[in-house]
Amino acid sequence: MSQLDQIRTKINDIDEKMAALFEERMHMSEQVAAFKRERGLSVRDAEREREAKAREEALLKEQEKAESHSLPRGAYAPFDVDAT
Questions:
Q1: Mapped to the 3 state alphabet, what secondary structure does 28-71 carry?
Q2: Average pLDDT, the chain
Q3: Where would you tag: which of 9, 44, 67, 81 has the fewest CB atoms within 10 A of its CB?
Q4: Closest C-alpha to 36, from 24, 48, 44
Q5: Which pLDDT band, with edges at 50, 70 and 90, does 80 fall under?
Q6: 15-32 b/e with 16+ CB inside 10 Å = b?
Q7: CB 56 within 8 A of CB 50
């Protein structure tokens, strides 16, 4: 297996994990919706949305900070990529 094939295999593995996580997240969202429906609660929760947005912004800032202390984008590859 070429190095490029190894990289592509790893990408495919990551894609499968992402799809499984997304499916799990959608299932959990369905449970939240059912919980709210059963109790007559509003689907929208402005406070929860603010908290989620703040959490996501904090994660992005952490990632940006980590990236600023690492090699420039594109300067790192886990394998020496050949053209095959």
A1: HHHHHHHHHHHHCCCCCCHHHHHHHHHHHHHHHHHHHHHHHCCC
A2: 88
A3: 44
A4: 44
A5: low
A6: eeeeeeeeeeeeeeeeee
A7: no
**Separation CA 11–CA 7 (nearest Å):** 6
Tokens of 39: 């109790």
Q: Which of 73, 72, 84, 65 is nearest to 3 (CA)?
A: 84
Closest CA to 22 of 61, 68, 30: 30
Distance of CA 8 to the CA centre of its chain: 19
Q: Which amino acid is at 40?
A: G
In whole angstroms, give the CA distance from residue 62 to residue 71: 16
Token match 């495919």: residue? 12
Chain centroid to Cα 21, Å, comes to: 8
